[in-house]
Amino acid sequence: RAIGEAAEVPSAQVEAAIAAFIPAIRGALARSPIHGMVTVSGYEGSELLVARLLIESGATVPYVGTACPRTPWSEPDRVWLEAHGCEVQYRASLEQDLAAVDRHRPQLAIGTTPLVQACKQRGLPALYFTNLISARPLMGPAGAGSLAQVINGAIANQARFDTMRDFFGDTGAGDKAGIWSDTPVLRPEFRADTRRQVIKIMKRRKAEEML
Fold first, then answer.
1. Which pLDDT does position 156 carry in this prediction?
2. Exposure of 133 in the CB half-sphere (CA atoms within 13 A)
3. How many domains does the chain have?
4. Strand ranges in the chain using DSSP code E only, listed in sequence order
5. What pLDDT score does 21 carry?
6. Looking at 18-145, which runs of residues are DSSP E strands?
7. In terms of residue numbers, what domain contains 7?
8. Is residue 39 within 8 Å of residue 151, measured between CB atoms?
C-alpha cells in the first residue's frame, strides 16, 4: 500500500494486487518453513529485509548487523524487527557481528567473508551474504520460498562440522598453525620472556608520556 500511495496508483488497483499476491506469499512461506536461530550481517543494504523474511519464514533472528547507516527508508523494517525481538545494529563492525555470534550461538551465521571464516573455525555453519543470500529474490512468492532450501541445508550441516572438529581437533590452530616439517614444540619460557619485555616497554612508554 505504501508503494502504491507513493506512486499514486489508484487504490482499487493496489487492493487488487494485494488480494492476488498475499495468499500466494503466505502459501510459499507455509510450504518452505525455516526452523532454527540465524544471525545476519553484511554490507549490501538488504540485511534488514533478509532478517525480516527469515523471521516470517519461521526462523529466530536475534541480531542483524548492516554496514549501512540508519535511514528513513529502513525505519519500518527496524521497527518491525525490534518488535520481533531482533537487535538491529547500523554501521556494524566485524567485531560487533562476531560478538553477536558468540553471544547468541546461532545454528547458522550469515555474513561477510571474515565472519564466515571465523564461524567455520568455531565449527558453526555459516553462509556468505553476498553470493548466497543477496543474489536471491526477496519479494513476492518467489522471495518467500527462496531462502528455505539453502538455509535449512546449511543448518543441517552441523553434523559435518562436528565430525571434522572431532577428527582434526586443534590441528592448525594457535601455535600449531602453518606448515611444519615436524611436530611444533611449544616454548612457554620464550613466551613468558617476551611477555615480560612487552610489559617493560609499555611501562616505559607510559612513564615517558607522563613527563
1. 92
2. 31
3. 2
4. 38-42, 63-66, 87-89, 108-111, 126-128
5. 85
6. 38-42, 63-66, 87-89, 108-111, 126-128
7. 1-31
8. no
